[in-house]
Amino acid sequence: MAVVANKRSVMTLYSDPSSIHCHRVRFVLAEKNVTVDIVDADPLDLPEDVVEMNPYGTLPTILDRDLTLYDSRIIMEYLDERFPHPPLLPVDPVNRAASRLYLHRVDTDWYSKVETILKGGKGAAAARKELRESLITTVPVFKAMDFFMSESFSVVDASIAPLLWRLPMLGIELSPAAAKDVDNYANRLFEREAFQQSLTEEEREMRP
User: Is-above-0.90 flag for pTM?
Assistant: First the structure.
């Protein structure tokens, strides 16, 4: 899979085609309209470049000339600074810090639950319940503005969209009232051209 865009740079992204962390990086790359070679990689059989350049052996891993980055949040912030248009983080320090806190909460409160659900076992049911309840609690935020705590699309939305896309696969059903508001927000993200470009075949099969 490759995101085809302008010729400002040539990067290589090693990406697990079913990983939520890799998905949000692909979404940001597409929003930024960056030329990038995306190499689908198996986390259990990593490419040699990832083994050599990433001491943690994790995906996503991105190579940009002599630079190697391997944490999805760090990668997204790097891309926003490297390619400033369109901006996906606020310019002013206060709102920028607030966005970073939102990202931290998405990772801590939601992404961690996704990982627990995917592992299965005794903790999956509790994680599914906690994630469902947390999303329902957040409905007023989804309703308040077109995007998450913002009038414009940001890296926070780029992180939430892959999560919402995976809800059916994770076995999470919301109450009708909550589902309507969450779906309205989700569809604004899913309908973006960049989101559609970011999807792998594996991800397209996650929804009926």
Answer: yes
